[in-house]
Amino acid sequence: MGLTDITKEEERKVEKNEKKMITILGAVIAVIVVILAVMLIMGRDTSTADNSGTSLKEAVQEETDSKKSNEGEDVSDGDVGQVDKEQPDDNTAQTTTEDNTTTEASDDDDTQSASEIMDADDGYIFPDADTEYISTSDVKKLSDSELQYAVNEIYARHGLKFTKKSNKERFEKKAWYNGTVDDQDSISLNKYEKKNVDTMAAELKKRGLR
Asked: Please, are residues 64 and 210 in contact by the beta-carbon 8 Å criterion?
């Protein structure tokens, strides 16, 4: 075999090796791209979850002084500002007029309006908020102050102490209330209460109160 043949054979080997290296590098790059894409998606999911938690926290504690209800009280009428009830899965909840008129309480308290229950010595706007999901239609029926009170009512059941005078006076005269908890974060809500708080908070935000 001549020198020229040897040189050509070496060139073919070099080219073959180069092709192998290019193929390997291409595969490595593809794997890296896939890994980066997965990390990016996971990062977005984590960010969304964090933002959701922050949003709920703000809905619960934030107080607004600029907006007023028909009764002349702060719209965020409590130390807490939760969301209203869960919308039915079949999306058949009726759309009701979103005015600030006094509304009827739940079926268990149908002899009293929600406004009357707020100032009464006993009773709940939503007696079953800890065992049943509240519908969006029921939440929409409440006035701004009634809705804010209903959110606080869920936390009052767990003994949360209120700092705002109007809330403190209203709940302290309730026969069922016993204020023993200073830190809202130490209260654990069950799945019904959490969803009901989210539902009411969403309605408050929709009305521009959060």
From this structure: yes
